[in-house]
Amino acid sequence: MSLPLAIAPALPLHAAGKYVAAAYVVFVVVILIYVMIMAVRLSRTERALVELNRDIAERDESARSAARDEVRPPGLDREPAPAGRAPGDSSL
Amino acid sequence: MPTYGRGLRVLSILTVVTISAALILVFFYAPLDANQGFIQKIFYIHVPLAIVSLCGFVFGGLLGVMHLKTGDRRYDMRSYVAIHMSLIFGVAALISGSIWAKASWGHWWVWDDPTLVSYLIVVLMFATYTPFRFSIEDPERQARYASVFAILGGAFVPLNFVAVRAAQGLVHPRVLTVSGGNLPGPMALTFLISLIGIALLYATLWKYEMAAKNARIQLRALRRRVLGDDDVSPLQRTAAPSL
User: Fold this and answer.
1) Please, which residues have CB within 8 angstroms of residue A26's CB and are 6 or more apart in sequence?
2) In terms of CB atoms within 10 Å, which of A53, B52, B105, B234 comes out highest?
């Protein structure tokens, strides 16, 4: 093969411009695709973080209700007696 | 665990400023090449991409050495990201070079030029890095074998470079030499700024991906600690390093 570079004439701007533009566009597009992929992964991480927060909140809530059940004395499990005279009350 | 996001903002700003300055210099300051005219402007993006990608492969190899030396799996992660980034830059260099070849030589590809073919061989070799990793299931073995691959590949890059330089009958122009090259001042300055810009872009994206991977790993560890192993689905087979 001869030396095409040495014999290649300078392309006029209207012909060369599209090639130069294409080379720079390729660079930008490759970087944009990369950033897009990273953005998708970032949103996935964010979703996982939200899920983890929700799981922790649910766990805390169930732990709190379990603690409340433990603290309450056994006698308080029954419904309180209604106000007023109870049937069979002979205090009068 | 280290935080890779530190300094990322400053690095990003520096990258944007340098690449913007490089683009201004390319189109408004660097003179037109007497031989190729406007087409030569591709040189300022194509050559820095190729140089940075090759340096990235060597960087990945050096990190592989660190992994084997220390046994610290974080070096494997760094090596993986360095090679991954270099491949992306390598593909961009191949495509931009191909466009330049078409405009300059009339062909998208010239098979008898050692520079082109050797660069393609390097990129194709590193393209097998990820499938190679994926083929090994055990994470410990995967990391170790991948480091050996990265070291061999990284060592191949400078050897390949020297071999190509020694080759005769080149079609590819030689503008950068040990004696300083034959670029005139304004072109050399523009090229230097472009090279720094692309190198900064590589560093920014490397840090960005490391920060993202680190965040995912920490999130998974936190999930396991808070919810227990049973509530966290096991890791699927992957080519990416898992700490």
Assistant:
1) B92, B95, B96, B99
2) B52
Residues of B in contact with A39 (CB under 8 A): none
Q: What is the pLDDT of residues B70-112, one digit of tens each?
A: 988 899 999 999 999 999 999 999 999 999 888 888 889 888 8
Q: Are B38 and A18 in contact (CB under 8 A)?
A: no
The answer to whether the Cβ–Cβ distance between A10 and B88 falls below 8 Å is no
For B174, the 3-state DSSP assignment is coil
Phi, psi of A25 (to 5 degrees): -65, -40
DSSP string, B52-116: HHHHHHHHHHHHHHHHHHH--HHHHHHHHHHHHHHHHHHHHHHHHHHHHHHHHHS-S--TT-HHH
Q: Which residues contact B181 (CB under 8 A, 6 or more apart)?
A: B175, B188
Residue in chain A nearest B211 by alpha carbon: A42
Q: Mean pLDDT throughout B192-204?
A: 95
Looking at residue A81, its pLDDT comes to 54
What is the reported pTM? 0.81
Q: Which residue, B92, B22, B80, B20, is CA-closest to B56?
A: B80
d(C-alpha B157, C-alpha B58), whole Å: 7
Q: Which of B102, B37, B40, B105 is nearest to A10 (CA)?
A: B37
pLDDT band of residue B4 (cuts 50, 70, 90) is confident
> Which chain B residue shows the shortest CA-CA distance from A45?
B216
HSE-CB for B98 with a 13 A CA cutoff:
14
Q: Name the β-bridge partners of A11.
A: B37
CA distance B186 to B139: 50
Q: What angle do CA B175, B182, B157 make, to 5 degrees?
A: 30
- What the block records as the tokens of B64 is 């592989």
Structure-block tokens of residue B163:
């071999």
Tokens of A55: 């799981």
Chain A residue closest in CA terms to B210: A38
